[in-house]
Design brief:
Number of domains: 2
Oligomer: single chain
Strand content: 5-15%
CATH class of the largest domain: Mainly Alpha
Structural class: alpha/beta
């Protein structure tokens, strides 16, 4: 398995800045509206301080107090309207940006080289594309606007206290020192903790998915206890990771709650002394205390969302991790001169391990039917993947018409070589939708003809025929029918070379023979390379390539190899019970 990378902090910051830059007008509108709302919010405590001073000074008329009170009401209403408008603008920003993140992730996932996509844990990629992308989207929609608004409000409130009295402002800032200290402690540990939580969640999802997918195998071989033990280990790891993040939150929030009270008490004590000395009015002291109490609201919003932001930052790092995987490389150049496939001194190893192919040399002539046989682990499927351009050799060359197959652009590669393995995929679409992937312009008659070729006459018996939904809440196909659908796509794609990696393995012997004969008839003028586990396929081929321990040890016709009495002859005798 290949572990998907996680983006570094610097990359995450650049990616986040890029998202903000893409919506800079909306972000600017949100910030301006929030600034105006914050200014309007400052009016209430100041006017209340004026009321206190007016009443304390004596001689205040009811009308003057009423006018000041009306001013407080007006400031409150204006603040509410502006803040709600800023929030609405922020939600629009969040939804558009979340859509951009989803689309970018999907583009990157689809651009992954096939060799990478097939080796990453399915649960990890699925979790990043669902839970992680969803967490980022929710944060962009909810947290980012509210945090920006709250940060603006907090800044204006602190400035207002300094304007009233610089000494009280300094006292307030010192009283708030506990919040950055607790936050710093939290942030130093949060990223790693949330990344571990995300990785544990992915591992748990992968463990559950593999167990469910192999439920029949688990039952048949009595693997229940082993799979339960593996699931419990994954659950324990996930629980441990979640408890770690819970511990961080349980320290942060109480420390912050205490820190809210300290600056208010300090300002009241210092302000009281200044008032007694006649250096500060009672209204200024009251307004400062109210501002600091008002400060608790935006700080609460910021700190409540801080946990979500850390979790989402970890999710965003996992989503952006796909950037670190280099896309499939194609080299512009002339198209292949012909359909001749040549393999020269090829060596290949998976993920830096030992070579599974060792110095393989092979020429496949246009229109030839070549069977590749050998014991399990001999390198047959690996050779098929190299011939189809899925993987690149570690050394040596695999070319078609003189051009390296793996360098061909995807659209040209599909016209040259198609790999069909026993692993197949049915998309959540209709039968027609699953087929036209290979031939977008195909008519219904052509689709039915392709299905007939591979023996999939069962489609005509479906209630809605070609329009029958598959997957999800639609019809669930068994392995044999899904494989027939994959083979029908090959017929529709009509490449000059088809690599069949045990492509009929899931079909029963009679259906498999019928499908192979039908494919042979349709592809009679095409090159067919069959990685075979049934030696009857080799018997019908023009030539047979025999693999052992990553080497090509024999090459020839069926009759010649049987007569030679070598490795193929031994396989043939074993196949027939000799």
């Amino acid at each position: 398995m290949t572990t998907l990378p996680v983006a570094g902090t610097a990359h995450v910051r650049r990616a986040a800045a890029g998202l903000l830059q893409a919506e800079r007008r909306t972000v600017a509108s949100m910030v301006l509206l929030n600034a105006f709302a914050a200014v309007a919010g400052l009016g209430g405590p100041w006017l209340l301080g004026r009321i206190v001073d007016t009443v304390a000074g004596g001689g205040a008329s009811v009308g003057a107090v009423d006018r000041l009170a009306a001013g407080i009401l007006l400031c409150t209403l204006v603040q509410i309207v502006l803040a709600r408008t800023a929030l609405a603008v922020g939600f629009r920003f969040g939804e558009r940006t979340a859509a951009r993140v989803r689309e970018r992730f999907l583009d990157r996932a689809l651009a992954l080289p096939a060799s990478v996509a097939e080796r990453v844990p399915a649960g990890d990629l699925a979790t990043r594309g669902t839970a992680d992308v969803g967490a980022v989207a929710a944060t962009l929609r909810d947290a980012v606007p509210e945090v920006l608004i709250a940060a603006g409000q907090a800044l204006f409130v602190i400035v207002a206290v300094f304007v009233l009295n610089p000494l009280l402002g300094a006292v307030a800032v010192l009283g708030l020192a506990g919040i950055p200290a607790a936050t710093h402690w939290y942030l130093r540990r949060a990223r790693r903790a949330y990344l571990e939580e995300g990785a544990a969640g992915s591992a748990l999802a992968d463990e559950m998915a593999s167990t469910i997918a192999g439920a029949r195998t688990v039952e048949a071989f009595g693997l229940r206890e082993r799979r339960v033990a593996a699931a419990r280990e994954a659950i324990t790891r996930s629980l441990r990771a979640r408890l770690r993040t819970l511990f961080l939150r349980s320290v942060l929030f109480p420390a912050v709650d205490v820190s809210y009270v300290v600056p208010v008490v300090a300002v009241l004590l210092v302000g009281g002394v200044l008032h007694v000395d006649g250096r500060l009015s009672l209204g200024a002291v009251a307004a400062s205390a109210l501002y600091l109490r008002q400060l608790a609201v935006p700080l609460d919003a910021i700190l409540i969302w801080l946990e979500q932001l850390q979790s989402s930052a970890a999710s965003f790092a996992r989503v952006e991790g796909l950037v670190a995987i280099p896309p499939a490389v194609t080299v512009p150049g002339p198209p292949p001169a012909n359909d001749r496939i040549e393999v020269r001194d090829v060596r290949y190893a998976y993920d830096g391990g030992r070579d599974v192919l060792r110095g393989v040399d092979l020429t496949v002539r246009p229109g030839e039917r070549l069977a590749v046989v050998g014991p399990s682990g001999a390198g047959k499927s690996t050779l098929g993947r190299l011939l189809a351009g899925v993987d690149r050799p570690r050394s040596g060359t695999v070319t078609v018409g003189g051009v390296p197959i793996a360098d061909l652009p995807a659209d040209l590669l599909r016209r040259q070589v198609v790999l069909v393995s026993q692993e197949h995929h049915v998309f959540r679409d209709t039968v027609r939708g699953n087929l036209v992937l290979a031939a977008p312009d195909a008519t219904d008659d052509r689709l039915r003809a392709a299905l007939t070729v591979v023996g999939a006459d069962w489609v005509d018996e479906l209630p809605e025929g070609l329009d029958t939904p598959l997957g999800g809440t639609g019809l669930a196909l068994d392995g044999a029918r899904a494989q027939q659908l994959a083979l029908a796509r090959v017929v529709l794609a009509d490449p000059h070379t088809v690599v069949l990696d045990e492509a009929t393995a899931l079909l029963d012997p009679t259906t498999a023979r019928d499908a192979e004969r039908a494919l042979a008839a349709v592809l009679h003028d095409r090159t067919v390379i069959a990685v075979a586990h049934r030696l009857q396929t080799a018997h019908d081929a023009d030539r047979v390539a025999v693999m052992e321990a990553g080497r090509l040890v024999e090459l020839g016709t069926h009759d010649d190899l049987v007569a030679a009495g070598g490795a193929y002859a031994a396989l043939w005798r074993t196949w027939h019970g000799g």
